[in-house]
Amino acid sequence: MAGADSDAVTTAGGRHHGPPKIISARPKVRKTVYVVHEVKAAATAGEGDPPVPQGKIRLSQESVDAILAEDTTPHPMSDPSADLDLFRSLLPPELYEATERVLLSAARTEGRRRSRIVERHAWVRGELEKKGYVDVDEDKALTFTAIHLEEELE
């Protein structure tokens, strides 16, 4: 009977088949993942819609939905004041000043990004209400790429 069940391991709770599981002592960490939704042109113009003009693409419903689903809530980086208060007490002045410049720059960048998303949402909604579809210039289509930030445990 030897070798018939060579992958079985005897444990305190009985027999376990397969190699023993290795449990990592490293704690799980939360990370942010960028999910990019490529701009897709609609396969055809909708019934009753005019043809797509030269030099433009009509956004697919999938692209419109991805754009309108972009999160506009302020990111914690939008207001670094709490972090700056902590760093002020922990860092030497020269390192604090450099950290402050970086955090304030990141906050401004995040504010501009969020502002562009809000403007894009308003424009896309306006086009949908007015025409029922969204046409964009081919050369500007990439600016309509929706990027979603998602957190996951690693």
Structure description:
With 154 residues, the protein is an alpha+beta fold. The chain has one domain. Helix content is 37%, strand content 19%. The chain is built from three helices and six strands. Mean pLDDT is 78; it is low at 1-10.
Label this structure with key terms.
disordered N terminus; two-stranded antiparallel sheet; 6 strands; single chain; 154 residues; 3 helices; elongated; alpha+beta; 19% strand
Topology at a glance:
Blueprint: E1 8-11, E2 14-17, E3 30-37, E4 56-58, H1 61-68, H2 81-90, H3 93-131, E5 135-137, E6 146-153
Antiparallel strand pairs: 1-2, 3-6, 4-5
Helix pairs in contact: 2-3
Short description:
This protein is an alpha+beta fold and 154 residues long.
Tally the beta strands. Answer: 6
Quote the distance from N terminus to C terminus. Answer: 42 Å
Q: Report the C-alpha radius of gyration, rounded.
A: 26 Å
Helicity level: 25-40%
Question: Uncertain runs with pLDDT below 50, 5 residues or more?
Answer: 1-10
Q: By helix and strand content, what is the structural category?
A: alpha+beta
Spatially, the strands of the biggest sheet line up as 1-2
Overall mean confidence score, pLDDT: 78
